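Task: sequence in, structure out. Protein: Tetratricopeptide repeat protein.
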Amino acid sequence: MKRKFLTIALSFLTVVAIAQKKEIRDAGKAVDKGSYAEAKSLLQQAEPNLSSVNDRFKSDFYLYKGKAYLGTGENVSVEDLRTAAQAFKQAEQLGEEQEAAEGLSGVTNALVQSAINDQNSENYKGAAEKLYAGYQMNPQDTVYLYYAASNLINTGEYETALEYYEELRDLGFTGIETEYIAVNKATGEEESMPQSQRDLMVKTGEYINPEDRKSPPKNAEIAKNIALIHIAQGNDDEAIAAMEEAKKANPDDISLLQSEADMYYRMGDKEKYKTIMEGILERDPNNATLYYNLGVTTFEVGDNEQAVEYYKKALEIDPSMTDARLNIAAAILAKEAALVEQMNSLGMSKADTKKYDELAEQRKEIYKEALPYLEKVMENNPENTDAIRTTMNIYYQLGEEDKAEALQQKLNGGN
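Result:
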C-alpha cells in the first residue's frame, strides 16, 4: 500500500512539472508578444511549484519574469522595477549572465529616465524614490544616491537627505566623472559622448581635438549640504563640527572653504564669512566669482563702498560679469535713500528750500554715477529688463525724456 502511494505521488509531481514548463513557455510567448499582464499571470501560476522544474526552466522563468515586470520600461512602478531587477539577478545566478545583465541595464535605464521625467515635472519626491531604488539595485552606482539626496532637498525632506549625504561622505564619494569631449568639424561645437564613440568619430575625421575632462569633485558640496541641513534644523554646533571634520580630510580644498564661508553666511555671521573669503582670495587672487560673492555679503552688512570695490575687482578679472555691473549700480543707488529721507523732512522755509535743491543735485549726481554701469549692461545684454527699467527711470529723473521713452517702448515690446 505504501509503495502504491509513493508511485501516485511521483506521478503527480511529473504532471505538476509538465504544467510548470507549459506555463513558463507560454509566459515567454506572451512576453515576446508584449502581453506583459498575461505573462505575469502565467508566471504567478507557475511560481508556487517552481522547485519541481530543472535549472534551465528556472532561469527561463526568472528571465521572463524580469521582462514581464520591466515591460516597455515606460510608466512602470518602482515596485515592479524592483521585482524585475530581483528576477534578473536570480536568472544571472542560474547562468543567464548576458541576458540578465541586459535586463538589469534596462531596469536601470527605466528608473533613471523616469526620475528625469519626474524632475522635469517637479515631482522631486518621485525622482528621489526612483534614484534611491537605482542605488539599492546597483550599490556601486553611488551617483544615484547623490542625486536622490539632491531631489529630497527640493522636497524639504532634510532628515532623509541628511542620511543619504552622510552615507556618501562615509563611502568617500567624490562624484568626479570623466567627460569625453571632441569638436564636431561640421558645426565647430564641442560635444560630449561615450569614450568609444568619441574615439571612433575622431578616427573617421568627423571630430577633432579630443579631450578627457573631469568634472569638479562633489565632496565639498556634500559637506556643505550636511552643514546646511543641520543649520535648518537649528543644530549650529553639529554643522560646524561636520564642516571641521570635512576640512581635516581636505585641508587645501578651496571649494570646501567656500562651503564653510557659505555656512557662516547662512548662520548670519557675515564677519566670519568675510574673513574666510578673504583668506580664500589670498590663495586664489584671480577668481572673479570670489570677489563678486564678497561684494554681495559686504553690501548686505552695509559697507557699500567696499562692496563696489569688490565688484570692480571682479570686473577687472572678468569684464563680462553682468551681475557685478548691476550690483555696482544698485550699491551706488542705495545712497539715494538717505537723501530722499532728508528731502522729505524739510519744510518750506528759504533755508529748507535751498537745502532741498542741494540734496536734489546730489541725487542727480548719484544717478549719473550709476548710469554708465547700467548702460554697459544694456550694451552687452540688450534684453536685460532690470537694467532697462532702472535706466529708464533714471533718464526720466534726469529730464532725458526721449531716451526714457525709447526704453519704455522697448519694455512694451517695440523696436
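The two ends are 104 Å apart (CA to CA).
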